[in-house]
Structures are given as C-alpha cells and as structure tokens.
Specification:
With 516 residues, the chain is an alpha/beta fold. The protein contains 19 helices and 21 strands.
C-alpha cells in the first residue's frame, strides 16, 4: 500500500513494450504501483514492488477478468480533484488518490484483422475497463496524468526526473492524445462490428472512420498550406497508403493525389499496362505483351506532357523498362516490385520509387470520400467493369475486332479521366486525351490536337453521352473510326446519324463513368 503522501500509479497494459524500464523508473521516482492480472505478473516476476488491484478494491477479478478495475476505490482515486471536500470523501471511504494512470487497450485491432473474425471473438476483445480508466484520467488530467502508449514513456520519465512533476502543457497533451485514442478505438469497433454483426446499412446516420497518420507532408497543395497523410488502418489492398518507399524525397499533398490516380488506373488492367499521369489525368497509357513495351508506348503517347510525370506499372519493373526510363525525367515510379537488375539504373535517377506488392485482382469494395466545406460526400468506390457482351451497336456498321478491343481499352481509361472526358485509343494505347473541359466537344478538340495524325483509325471513348452531334463531327474530321459512349441523350438519333455519315461504328454502354 502507498504511504501517506506517496504518489501512486495504476498500470494495466496489453502492450508490455518498455513496461519494466518505465515501472522501475517510476519506483525510483517514489511512486507506489498498483496493477492488474498480466501486468502485475510481469512486474512481479521482474522484482518490481507492486500491489494487485484486488488489494485496493477488496474484491477479486471476476467474470473471467471482465471486471477488474470497475470499482469506486479505483475511479474515485482517479477522478478526485484537489478540492478539500474530495480529499475528505476519499479519506472517509479509505480510498487513495492515483496520480498517474498507465493503460493501453485490448488488441481489438489485431483480432479484427483476422480473416474471418467471428463476432463473438471480436466482442470478447472489446475493452471496457481500459477506456473507462483512460477517459477518467484524461478528464482529471490536472491531477492524474494519463499515459497510453509505450512511445510516451521516455518523455514522461525525462520530465519527471528533470522537474519532479509533469507540466500543465504535458498533461493537456497527454489528455488530448488519450481522448483521441479512445475515440479511434470506438471508431474501429463501430466499423468492424458493422460487418461482423451483419448490419445492412450502406450509409449509416453516424459515420465514424478510423484513420491513422502515415506522415506529415512537405506541404499541402501549395507551399503555404500544411499537409498530412492518413491511412485507413484496415485496408490491406495494395495502394499508395500501404506502399513502401524505396527511394526519393518526402511526399507532398500533390504527389499523393497524382500517385493514387496513376496506380488506380493501372490496377483496372489485367494485361501488362503502364500509365504516365500529370495533374490527375493520364498523358499516356498503354497495354502490351511486356511491361517494357507498354511503358514505351505510354511514353510515346504524349512525351511532352510526360516530362516530370508519375509512372505506374502493374508488373515488376525490369531492366528493359529501366533502360527505357533512362532519358526521361520522372517524378515518381510505382510498381508491384523492382527487379534487382533494374535498381542500379534507377539509383542513378533523381526519382521516387514506391513498391506496392502484387496488384492482381486487388481492388476491394469500400467508400470513396470527398471533402466539401462543412461536410463529406460519401459513395461506394467505382469498381465497375464493362461486360463486352453488353455493348449495343447503334450504328449501321459493326465494329471490327480491333475496334472492339480498343473501345474496351478506351473505356477503362476514360473512367479515370476528369470529366468531361474523352480518350482516343489505338492499338491499346492512348493517342489523345481531353480532360476536364466545360463542353464535351471541347474535350474532343483537345484529344484530336494531342493525337494529330494518330487519330486516323483510332477509336473514341466518352465518359457520358454526346448532347449534340458536334463532338462526332470533330472526331470524324480527325479520323476516328469508332465511338463508345453511354448513350441516353434526347439527341441520340442525331448523334447516331452523324456517326453513320462518317462511316463510324458506334456502341453504347448504357452506363456513364464520370469522375470529378
């Protein structure tokens, strides 16, 4: 038991990292220690003087450990202020004060990461006493410091050794981190149990999402804006948030946006595919028999715009591909892996390298979230895939097999281009991209200008219907021979008639794929 006036700390941790060193330091600083089950055993076996919680409460741990610290002798000692009336009440009840609470929570996340995790197992690993202790100490942080992570131990001990106590600023910081942790913990439980308990509600009234910081960024969209990058702690899909940086500078806000756009584009392709993206839109993308051929074709689609771009590959980056990259300045390269023979060449380049792991079939359902001032827009991720047999030929001429192949390629690309979006494609390579224009014919004009003579014999993909025939006229004049678009305009017949006048094959998908 603590002597009169002796400071007292309650320790109950599932993560034992650094526990022994921290506890020894507290004892050396004059603290009396109280602990629970496994933590008590750890301390006791290492020769550290410690009392059981049951000695304080007068009750044993019960219900298979579900109830250990839920007792007035514990919570009154944590929540009591320095008010004389509180001190008198503690004394009359025979309770002592706690000056520090050191708690981390049951490893719910680790259980939740199991595939599959049963609802029963998840529920059994929901910590009740831990969050209650943390929140009580955080509420009363002026009198009971709260420590929730082993990473906090060195700073706490250092300050106690230097000044004998923790400053108000430190206590405030620890309390805020504690409330953030319990909020995250509850968000993890909410997100996980929704699936485990088969709650069929796609967009619930309350949306709580557990995200954890990956890193601070060099800056936001502009140098005067601060930025940070957070990841969904449960998403295991190969993505930018889970990629491993092998080489290069620190990431910026814009780097991550462009990298994400590039990687998600090539993940839609089964065959070897390479993409080069600038400002969220592809300057070039191509599929081929090998990844090196695909990169050369993608680079050749618009070499001027590719300068300083982001490259993503859906196959390992081999030496041949690295040789092809030698003469072009690139900001970043993303690939499932990097062959050892390619690394000597890449090490010489001033370029960032990100390794994602295998991409095959690795897009998982989830939420697509966009921020607006004062709110969030939430929708399901666009994981749509177009069934080739669902295409409806609306023109007089049937498309050739090559045109069908390129239309399917163009459709996969156009869903990743900012609307109004137009893609010209030939031989499974983009030859012209028109993005983000206020009119669809404006996007066609840009794609035609980018393509030049390569538009002759190419196909055109549009992310939405053509409201007028002017887009078809512009494409026909450029040399486009086939068009794929959703259809559904009140002027569809006018658009079809225009295609027939140019001898184009035209198919409709019945679905649009806008990206804003």
């Amino acid at each position: 038991m603590a002597e009169e006036g002796q400071k007292r700390a309650l320790l109950s941790v599932s993560d034992k990292t650094g526990l022994i060193e921290f506890a020894r330091a507290l004892v050396k600083l004059g603290y009396s220690l109280v602990s629970t089950g496994g933590t008590f055993q750890e301390l006791h076996e290492n020769g550290i003087p410690v009392s059981r919680v049951s000695e304080v409460t007068g009750f044993p741990e019960i219900l298979d450990g579900r109830v250990k610290t839920l007792h007035p002798a514990i919570h009154a000692g944590i929540l009591a202020t320095r008010d004389p009336s509180h001190a008198e009440q503690l004394k009359s009840m025979g309770f002592g004060r706690f000056d520090m609470v050191v708690v981390n929570l049951y490893p719910f996340e680790k259980v939740a990461e199991k595939t599959p995790g049963s609802a029963e197992e998840l529920i059994e690993n929901i910590d009740i006493g831990g969050p209650s202790l943390i929140r009580a100490a955080a509420k009363n942080h002026e009198n009971a410091a709260v420590v929730i992570e082993p990473s906090q131990y060195p700073g706490v001990i250092s300050e106690l050794e230097a000044t004998g106590d923790l400053s108000k600023e430190t206590r405030k910081r620890l309390a805020w981190e504690a409330f953030s942790r319990t909020a995250e913990y509850d968000a993890i439980i909410s997100s996980t149990l929704k699936d485990a308990l088969a709650i069929r509600e796609e967009h619930p009234d309350r949306l709580v999402l557990p995200f954890r910081k990956v890193q601070d960024l060099r800056y936001g969209e502009n140098p005067y804006q601060k930025g940070a990058f957070y990841r969904d702690i449960f998403l295991k899909e190969p993505c930018i948030a889970n990629a491993r940086k092998l080489k290069g500078k620190e990431l910026s806000f814009n780097n991550i946006l462009d990298m994400n756009a590039t990687l998600e584009l090539v993940k839609d392709f089964d065959e070897p595919t390479a993409a080069v993206v600038k400002h969220m839109n592809p300057s070039g993308i191509a599929s081929s028999q090998t990844i090196s051929e695909a990169f050369v074709k993608a680079l050749g689609a618009d070499p001027l715009s590719a300068y300083g771009g982001i490259v993503a590959l859906n196959r390992e980056l081999d030496r041949d591909t690295a040789v092809s990259m030698k003469s072009i300045f690139l900001d970043s390269i993303i690939a499932p892996s990097f062959h050892k023979d390619a690394m000597p060449l890449l090490e010489k380049k001033k370029v960032m390298l990100l390794e994602t792991g295998g991409l095959e079939g690795r897009k998982t359902p989830g939420l697509d979230i966009k921020r607006v001032v004062g709110g969030l827009l939430v929708q399901s991720r666009d994981l749509s895939r177009l069934d080739p047999t669902a295409l409806k030929v609306v023109s007089k001429r049937e498309p050739t097999e090559d045109e069908r192949r390129d239309m399917m390629f163009g459709w996969k690309v156009v869903k990743h281009v900012t609307s109004n979006a137009i893609v010209f494609a030939k031989d499974t390579t983009s030859v012209g991209v028109g993005a983000g224009q206020m009119s669809r014919v404006g996007s066609v004009a840009i794609a035609a200008k980018k393509a030049g003579a390569r538009a002759k014999g190419a196909v055109m993909a549009s992310d939405a219907f053509f409201p007028f025939r002017d887009g078809i006229d512009a494409a026909g004049e450029a040399g486009i021979t086939a068009v794929i678009h959703p259809g559904g305009s009140i002027r569809d017949q006018e658009v079809i008639d225009a295609a027939n006048e140019y001898g184009m094959a035209m198919v409709t998908t019945g679905m649009r794929c806008l990206k804003h």
